[in-house]
Amino acid sequence: MATFNSGMSGDNTDLLANDKKLIIDIFHIPTKTSVQFKAFVTSYQDKFESDYNSEDVYGRMDPIQTFKGTKRKISLGWEVVSASESEAAQNLERCTTLFSMLYPTYSESGSAVATTIAAGPIFRLKFANLIQDVSANAGGAASASSSGLVGTISGFTYEPDFDSGFFDAGIGTLLPQTIKLSCEYTVNHTHGLGWSHGVKRTKNFPYNAEGETGTPDGTETGPKATTSDPVEAETAGREVTGS
Q: Whole-model pTM?
């Protein structure tokens, strides 16, 4: 895992990245290459979307819906901030390596046009406990290579912040002081999901929250709730009381 050094003595962002492991860690599976950024996160959205086949039939007010699957997509945006010219050079190098990871791995070597793809771009992504593979049972300091969430990246948006300015690194060379990055990450589930006999197949999914709420049917403590609606009672597995 990379060690961050902004070149500025006492920089707290180095402490947060190196000691607290507050970083965005992106691992390229085909080449086993990692790129890490300090976690100056500006936007984060984790979307779970269930898909159904919907069929309208004669005589029913509501369609018959057959479950197909649940997909997960993460939107992530962050800023790559440099406190010195040396850090700006390192950050630009991280960006160029990252963008190269979007291209496939070829079986041929050299820069000539290749025709045989050995592996497509696939990743493991980790950001604290918000983006991780909880089935790896790794601690918060673990790297993306061991506990990152497997998935694909549709692309990156690279936007230097012109208001923040640039470092003049020589003739014809500008190093952005702040770079805005964002991506869409489609998760490939590699561990058991859903429920079995009222118990989650992967504990603490998806954010490794220890104190999960909810208990399987038959293990509740305290008095049972009651209802006079037989349909509701059958659905919820609760006791029916007559009127």
A: 0.81
